[in-house]
Amino acid sequence: MISLRRQLLRWLLIPLALAVLALSGFAWVTSERSADAVQDQLLLGSALIMAEALRYEDGAYQHPIPPAALEIFQSAGEDRTYYRITASDQRLLTGDAALQSMGRDLNDSEPAYFEATMRGEKVRVVALAQPVIGAPDGARATVQVAQTRHAHDRTARRLWLQATAEQLLIIALAVVCMVFGLRKGLRPVLALRDELLGRRPGALEPLPSQKVPAELMPLVDTLNEQMLRLQESTRSRQVFIENAAHQLRTPLTVLATQISFASRTTDAQDRADSFAAVRGTLQHSIRMVHQLLTMAMAQEPSAAPPHVERVALARLVQEVLESLAGQAQANAIDLGLEIDARDPEAQCDPHMLREIVSNLVHNAILYTQRGGSVTARIVADAQGTSIVVEDNGPGIPSEDRERVFERFFRLANSDSTGSGLGLAIVREFARAMNADVVLKDGRDGRGVAVWVTFAGDSYPLRATKGPVAI
Fold first, then answer.
1. Chain-centre distance of CA 42, in angstroms?
2. Are residues 411 and 363 in contact, defined by beta-carbon separation less than 8 angstroms?
3. Helix-helix angle 150-185:4-52, to 10 degrees
4. Angle at 242 (CA atoms; ends 239, 248), nearest 5 degrees
5. 16, 234, 408, 426 - which has most CB atoms within 10 Å?
6. Distance (Å, rounded) from C-alpha 107 to C-alpha 284?
7. What pLDDT score was predicted for residue 390?
8. Which long-range contacts (CB under 8 A, 24 or more apart) does 396-402 make?
9. Distances 457 to 173, 238, 317, 344, 351 between C-alpha atoms, Å
10. Is the Cα torsion angle 255, 258, 261, 266 positive or negative in sign?
């Protein structure tokens, strides 16, 4: 399980650790420079004391070494100090001849520092050119003072450890503050968790937005929107289940009555009529169950998106008409197909389109009077490609043309046994494929024509065919 607290600490502590390493390196460089500066000041002070004591008297250099010149290093415990004074002709006046010279000329009163080795130990050396008072022709003497590096290294380590300890202390305090800060900052998240855990099963009320940090508001708003959608979906599903139960109760009750009558009657004709009625009621119930399942699938929010492909409309519509031809013939209804486009196609889901056409044609047959006609047309124009199913039945009043798309709605003046789901299914599947569904008057103002238009596909027009025999 991913821990937000651990992730935040990781993202904070890793950069801090890298920063400590980098700062530790900088601290070491700084400590070395500080120790160098301290040692250089001691060396320069000693060299200046020795240089100021130089004299030229009675034709010779006088080079006493004041005690203060060496006492300045007394605090340097284990370190050894060396000095060397040479005349301008490189003649050794006093000091240790083994001390390495700088190897280049010096400017007056400008000290030079360099590293050298003395008796196997590294030393820090200062070299100073000093004019000698009383010397002929402004002769100069070179004073060199050297010291080993033990105190220097100890000072550098002490400064580095002190700086590193301070940094580690700051990091430790930062970690403690981060842990407490994260604990406090995550309290609103834990409060939201407790709020959700404390709810009764199925509760979909919006989460409270008071005392929620600004960073969590988008999450809370999104959860509330999702809960509102779930509320609407749950409410719609509950209404659908109640309506479906009501719609199925009636045919099942009728079916039980018909079977009971058939089992009691002794007249062969009455029994035959009863079984014929049972068959009709059963077929109607099967059709209704199929439509209920189709409607539930169309309205399922988690359903897979439409499988869109190019579909040959003429073949699909003709297959649907052929499957319903028996029902049309039983009602003496003329079933036909007209194609107003050359090789019409549309980008759609073939399964959804088949359900749309099947429901439209079935409704047209169901609501058209005996001896009427139902025609499926395929039309292509600038607006797109359309499938039109029209009949010459009683039609739909203009004030009811929007309500017929509601589930289980049936016209008041209709004696049909339809379930009232056909057009609702058509609209749901059409929406899923971004198609438009429009009701218009049929030819010559009779009946109704349902237009299902798929925008974006247009094809060359050709002369209208007559009805195709099914």
1. 64
2. no
3. 160
4. 135
5. 426
6. 118
7. 92
8. 396/439, 396/448, 401/439
9. 68, 39, 17, 9, 19
10. negative
CA-to-CA distance for 47 and 70, rounded, in angstroms? 10
d(CA 143, CA 338): 118
220-261 pLDDT, tens digit per residue, is 888 888 888 887 777 767 766 766 665 567 667 777 887 888
First-to-final CA distance of the chain: 63
The residue type at 324:
L
The rounded distance, in Å, linking the Cα atoms of 230 and 223 is 10
Q: Which residues of the chain have pLDDT under 50?
A: 457-470
- Which residues, in sequence order, are bridge partners of residue 439? 450
The owner of tokens 């290294």 is 153
Structure-token pair, residue 357: 């056409």
Whole-number CA gyration radius for the chain: 51
Long-range CB contact pairs, 245-252, < 8 A, 24+ = 247/288, 247/292, 247/408, 247/419, 247/420, 248/285, 248/288, 248/289, 248/292, 251/281, 251/284, 251/285, 251/288, 252/285
- Maximum CA pair distance of the chain? 167
- Mapping DSSP onto H, E and C, the string for the chain reads CCCHHHHHHHHHHHHHHHHHHHHHHHHHHHHHHHHHHHHHHHHHHHHHHHHHCCEEECCEEECCCCHHHHHCCHHHCCCCEEEEEECCCCCEEEECCCCCCCCCCCCECCCEEEEEEECCEEEEEEEEEEECECCHHHCEEEEEEEEECHHHHHHHHHHHHHHHHHHHHHHHHHHHHHHHHHHHHCHHHHHHHHHHHCCCCCCCCCCCCCCCCHHHHHHHHHHHHHHHHHHHHHHHHHHHHHHHHHHHHHHHHHHHHHHHHHHHCCCHHHHHHHHHHHHHHHHHHHHHHHHHHHHHHHHCCCCCCCCCEEEEHHHHHHHHHHHCHHHHHHCCCEEEEEECECCCEEEECHHHHHHHHHHHHHHHHHHCCCCCEEEEEEEEECCEEEEEEEECCCCCCHHHCCHHHCCCCCCCCCCCCCCCCHHHHHHHHHHHCCCEEEEEECHHHCCEEEEEEECCCCCCECCCCCCCCC
Exposure pattern of 267-289 as b/e (b: 16+ CB <10 Å)?
eeeeeeebeebbeebeebbebbe
Angle, alpha carbons 453-455-458 (nearest 5°): 95
pTM more than 0.70 = no
